[in-house]
Amino acid sequence: MSKVKSNNVFKKIAKGLSVSSTITASTFLHGPPVLALGLTKLFGQSKKVDETNIKLTNSWLGINNWLIENVLPETEWDIYVDEQLDLNMDGRYLMMCNHQSWVDTTVNQYFGVSRMPLTRFFTKWELIFIPFVGQAFKILGFPMMKRHTKEQIAKNPELKKRDLEEARKSCQQLLSQPFTLLNYLEGTRFTQEKHEQQQSPFQNLLKPKAGGLALALNILGDQIDALVDMTIVYPDGVPGYGEFWLGDVPRIVVQLDKVPLPEWILQGNYEEDDAFRAKFQQWVEQIWHEKDQRISAIKAKYASE
């Protein structure tokens, strides 16, 4: 191995150790207070406790962002925000995004921590049993969904109504504070294999699942400030989490657009009205076609540079 290569390997190891040790230390610094304060909610809700936990979480995210800006200077960020999108820390937003890598969540946090309220997303109720992680999701107000299987619902249709009511309660809890509720409409990370299995009509995306967005709009739609479409593109290839934190991602492109909400969108019942469901799905697919074209244009722009 040449001296130059040896030095590069050493720098990579040193960077990896410094990043991982800083994130670990930060997690141990911020995690226990969040969990301890969360236990006090067993005796009643407290707005002050919620605000303190959010401040602690944003502090943890802030350290991650400091690492990104100071330890990973190799990564160039190109961020574009729709002029019609007035983002602030006191807003209430629904956000949808394409999903390619675990890095997507870090990208979302990097952008949002100083521009938008803490980002939350739907999580499965079963995660509550994962030590620390599940409890943190619950304490921070992530909507936790109890979902019965299709087989269980077929035997007892009332379970579907129960699931929807649980989802409604989870979403309504967000209304006591500013929030950003994120929905990855594809439901899973994009891979070429999944794309081919689905026979997706989109070049850069999997088929969108409209049900979660319909549910969130039904519950929160008349009380949100905007429906936001975040598009994330990695022009040099989709990275893994380790690659990102080692500084091996040359460029990340983020574009945020405001999605206008038609008047009819808040007036139907997605679960029970077949005509409304079909119209809603067509509306989502049109958004997805526009996103697909946007991604292709971004890739073409950076490929020509």
TrEMBL record:
Q: Which UniProt keywords are present, listed alphabetically? A: Acyltransferase, Transferase
* InterPro entries on file: Plipid/glycerol_acylTrfase (IPR002123)
Q: Where does the Phospholipid/glycerol acyltransferase domain lie? A: 93-235
| GO terms of molecular function | acyltransferase activity
* Keyword check for Nucleus: no
Q: Which NCBIfam families match?
A: PRK14014.1
Query: What is this protein identified as?
Result: Acyltransferase
Q: Which organism is it from?
A: Acinetobacter sedimenti
